[in-house]
Amino acid sequence: MKIKGITMTIVFEAESANYGESVGNIASLKKMSRGKGEQYTYISRQALSYNIVEQLREPLAGVISEGSAEKGVIQYSKECTIKDFPELDFFGYLKTQKDSNGLKRSAKVRLSNAISLETYKGDLDFLTNKGLADRINANMNIAQSEIHHSLYKYTITIDLDEIGYDDSDSSNIIDLDFEEKSRRVQKLLDTISMLYRDIRGRREDLKPLFIIGGIYDIKNPFFHNIVEVKDNSLDVKQIKEGLFSQIKADTMVGVYKGKFDNSEEIISELNATSVPDFFDSLKKRVKEYYESN
């Protein structure tokens, strides 16, 4: 099989989509600092993969708890394999076994954190349970929650040649047929194209507003560090400078026209189509790839 991989960098818009530890009565967003201390919120790759698995609508692998209550390890059941469970195929597994190194499969679908493209300014939302408190004439408890509405960026890479193949257990090597491999990847792309996240009574839309990528011989997240948005304009010049000759012909771009202030520039300079057309074209290329093998 030809060694091929998909890489896509995606920009979407969301609000307060991943919280970490609370500090007192303040629910704190997950954040990181850059430069001179500017803070950026992020949605962890674990949170993104959780939502992808949840929305794939494929059978979920069974899990077990090994060890004592204090030192127990929750892991996938030993009987579960990639044959029946795409989540194991995509995101890998570790199955410990006594007196051995166990069974391990690395992720074939890799995600970065989704990092905000706009800095966090310290905004807080004040929360109360007034509706319930008024029913019994009780005093209200006030809580605070950090809030941040921003554009976010993340990158996903998919090892096409390793989807549907697992030799971690030499006594049970699995190699699915190309039709099933193609179906799984296409369904994954459909899920990413309409991804959302439920959090604190809200449903946040994580579908791409801008996306760039394709199928390549080199499995590298080429675009992750060159896709930037400033003042609601995408840095087109930086992206064009990063289009090396060996990847340019295979690269596609999708954008929602009018979402960015320089949408016309994006369309003309990067030959961008609509986001739905991007996914339709990529799914077609995935099908052709597996059919050619």
Uncertain regions spanning at least 5 consecutive residues = none
Distance between the termini: 6 Å
Give, in order, the helices and strands. Answer: EEEEEHEEHEEEEEHEEEEHEEEEEHHEHH
Average pLDDT reading? 93
Strand content: 25-35%
Report Rg.
22 Å
What general outline do the C-alpha atoms trace? Answer: globular
Number of strands: 22
Number of helices: 8
Outline the structure in words.
This protein is α+β, with helices and mostly antiparallel strands and 293 residues long. It has eight helices and 22 strands. The chain has helices spanning 45-56, 86-91, 130-135, 178-193, 236-241, 245-248, 263-270, 275-291; strands spanning 5-15, 19-23, 26-29, 31-34, 38-43, 63-66, 73-76, 93-95, 103-105, 109-111, 114-116, 124-128, 142-146, 149-159, 165-166, 174-175, 196-199, 202-205, 210-216, 229-230, 233-234, 252-255. Strands 1, 4, 5, 10, 11, 14, 19 and 22 form an eight-stranded antiparallel sheet that branches. It has a four-stranded mixed sheet with strand order 2-3-13-12, with no helix packed on it. The chain has a two-stranded antiparallel ribbon with strand order 6-7. A hairpin with a 2-residue loop joins β2 and β3 (26-29). α4 runs antiparallel to α8. The longest helix is centred in the C-terminal third of the chain and has 17 residues, at 275-291. The radius of gyration is 22 Å and the shape is globular. 31% of the residues are buried. The mean pLDDT is 93.
